[in-house]
């Protein structure tokens, strides 16, 4: 089952535009010194760390079994500006024409008041409704392996993984979160093994999505 065509959302950089709101990300330069097990201490060195108020994120695999008993999983198209604006001239590989337009599992940032085990479930419930259009009981969300650090050399963000069985007939139009980058997304359901095959072919380039799909497949065996 091939995935549907992703919407071709193009980004144009407004050179003269000034942001009207505080920066979402902040870079903190710190001075560090390493102490080694043998007692040696390093010379001081500087290190840049990316900070944000809402640091962590949830990732949700919503799945169901079709009439053949095959497990299917929902994916959502998403445009990612850092990837879309990647310099093609310095890339070590040829880039596709739809660079920056990805297929992903629904995911979202944990709000400040959701920074607890219970809050993570509420966050995942909200993101599932906003991005896929499913309303579920937070208690129906199950952990999908331990949390992980997606970019530990740059940011201390943790990803918290969940999975939930959904009823396709109960899906409604997603509410989205009001941001430009969530508009007009395409939602698709496909067999889990086909999604993993696409990941192996390099057609699902979002790392957290592939990790969650592999974990979901382990539960299915």
TrEMBL record:
Transmembrane segments: none annotated. It comes from the Bacteria. It holds the Pfam family NUDIX. Its cofactor is Mg(2+). It catalyses: GDP-alpha-D-mannose + H2O = alpha-D-mannose 1-phosphate + GMP + 2 H(+). Keywords: Hydrolase. GO terms for molecular function: hydrolase activity. SUPFAM superfamilies: Nudix. Residues 53-217 form the Nudix hydrolase domain. GO terms for biological process: nucleoside phosphate metabolic process; ribose phosphate metabolic process. Belongs to the Nudix hydrolase family. NudK subfamily. PANTHER family: NUDIX HYDROLASE DOMAIN-CONTAINING PROTEIN (PTHR11839:SF18), UDP/ADP-SUGAR PYROPHOSPHATASE (PTHR11839). This is GDP-mannose pyrophosphatase. It comes from Polyangium spumosum.
């Amino acid at each position: 089952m091939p995935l549907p065509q992703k919407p071709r959302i193009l980004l144009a950089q407004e050179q003269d535009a000034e942001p009207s709101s505080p920066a979402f990300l902040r870079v903190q330069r710190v001075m560090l010194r390493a102490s080694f097990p043998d007692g040696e201490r390093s010379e001081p060195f500087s290190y840049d760390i990316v900070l944000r108020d809402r640091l962590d994120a949830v990732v949700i695999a919503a799945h169901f079994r079709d009439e053949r008993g095959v497990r299917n999983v929902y994916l959502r198209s998403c445009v990612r500006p850092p990837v879309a604006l990647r310099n093609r001239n310095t890339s070590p590989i040829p880039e596709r024409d739809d660079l920056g337009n990805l297929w992903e599992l629904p995911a979202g940032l944990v709000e400040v008041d959701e920074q607890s085990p219970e809050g993570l479930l509420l966050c995942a419930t909200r993101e599932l409704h906003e991005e896929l259009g499913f309303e579920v009981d937070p208690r129906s969300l199950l952990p999908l392996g331990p949390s992980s650090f997606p970019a530990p050399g740059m940011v201390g963000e943790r990803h918290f993984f969940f999975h939930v069985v959904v009823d396709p007939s109960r899906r409604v139009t997603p509410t989205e979160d009001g941001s430009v980058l969530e508009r007009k997304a395409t939602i698709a359901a496909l067999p889990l093994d086909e999604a993993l095959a696409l990941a192996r072919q390099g057609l699902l380039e979002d790392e957290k999505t592939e990790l969650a799909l592999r974990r979901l497949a382990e539960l299915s065996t």
